[in-house]
Amino acid sequence: MEKIKTSRSERRYKNTLERIQKEYVRKLDEDKLSLPKKLGKLSIIVSNMPDHRGEATAADQIRAFHNEADELAEYYSREYGAVNIYRKATEMEMGFELSNPDVAGLITIGHGNIGDFWLEGGNHMGWEKVAKLTKFLKQGEFIQRTCGNFPYLNSVPLGTFAVADQRNLIAPTGRVIDDIKPDESLFGPVYGKGRNDINDITDLIAKHYILA
Description:
Elements: H1 2-29, E1 41-46, H2 58-76, E2 82-86, H3 91-99, E3 103-109, E4 112-113, E5 116-118, E6 124-126, H4 127-133, E7 142-145, E8 169-171, E9 188-189, H5 198-211
Parallel strand pairs: 1-2, 1-3, 3-7, 7-8
Antiparallel strand pairs: 4-5, 5-6, 8-9
């Protein structure tokens, strides 16, 4: 019985990934794009959900997240038309920023893994929901300021289907980062190509899942 359950789960994952990949290609072909970086907005979304398993206190973790948002806002103000910080990571806020064509880039700050972002109240935002909510592919970056470990074989990187050029998906790929002061050298492009097929994505996951 367990083997049947696993098989069904694998089929569902494969079918979902194929469907989302086709939808992504359709958006590219139809130029469903956000504004360019210089004209568009960068939205920084901060989660207030601490990881109680960490060494740092909950208050220190949350304070660090908001300080990080302020620093990044100042830095990226030179590259985007405007930068906005949203200090509560809710599904509604994520959905609005992902679907807004004026928003050219997105940064998520908080806890999670490569395919999951912790939202307020113990909720989560996974890669499937991000893909569904993205109506206009971002012409800027999608930066995941969370851990980048691959806990599952279906851990598709969160912003894979949110950016027009997948080299603009930035994360600490395969790595766990510090709760207070993450090592900036760990952050880089998740993908080496601007456009990746399903084999590229599954190969990436398998590589880092095995390493984990």
